[in-house]
Amino acid sequence: MTERKQVLLRLDPAVYDALARWASDELRSANAQIEFLLRRALGEAGRLPTDAAPIPRRGRPPKTAEPGPPEGKSEDGTPGGPSTGRTV
Q: CA 28, CA 19: separation in Å to the nearest integer?
């Protein structure tokens, strides 16, 4: 992956505070929120480069489903659902 470009950005403090609150609501950093908004604006204007890499995913990886018994099988591998312990 190529190195990400660093940019110094001067903002009105009230604008930054609003941006930081919005970012927090969406569980992003202020920097990630700025990039998200810039990409969205570029896309809407038809100016997002086709070779722009996607925004890197941050944070914990998604949970994978835990393996369980196959559909229609009980935990001991016999057909049917879980045993109730009763005989019919």
A: 10
The mean pLDDT of 11-30, rounded to a whole number, is 96
46 secondary structure, DSSP code: T
Q: Rounded to whole angstroms, how far apart are CA atoms 69 and 76?
A: 8
Contacts of 66 by beta carbon, 8 Å cutoff, 6+ apart: none
Tokens of 56: 């890197």
Which runs of consecutive H residues, i.e. helices, occur in the chain? 13-25, 30-44
Terminal-to-terminal C-alpha distance of the chain: 63
Percent of the chain with pLDDT over 90: 51
Give residue-wise pLDDT tens across range 57-82.
Answer: 777 777 887 666 666 656 666 666 55
